Amino acid sequence: MTKRSTVRPIRTYLAISVLTLATMLSAQDTRNVTEPTIPPACTTLTAHLAATATGVDPADETKLDTARIQKAIDHCSKGHAVALRPQGDKNAFLSGPIELRQGVTLLIDKNTTLYASRDPKLYEISSGSCGVVNYQRSGCRPFITVDHADDSAIMGDGAIDGRGGSKLLGQNLTWWDLAEQARPPGSGRQQVPRLIVANYSDNFILYRITLKNSPNFHVSYNHGDGFTVWGVKIDTPQRLEYQPHGIARNTDGIDPGASKNITIIHSYIRTGDDNIAIKGGPGGVTNMTVIHNHFYWGHGMSIGSETNGGVSKIRVTDLSLDGPDNAIRIKSNASRGGLVQDVVYDDICIRNSPNPIIFSTAYTEAGSMQGNLLPVFRDITLRNVRISGGGKISFDGYDHTHRAAATLDNVLVTDDSHYTYSLDHADITLGPGPVNLDLPTGTDSAIHGTPSKGTPQSCADKFVPFPTQ
Question: For residues 219 and 266, what is the distance between their CA atoms, to the nearest angstrom?
Answer without folding.
Answer: 16
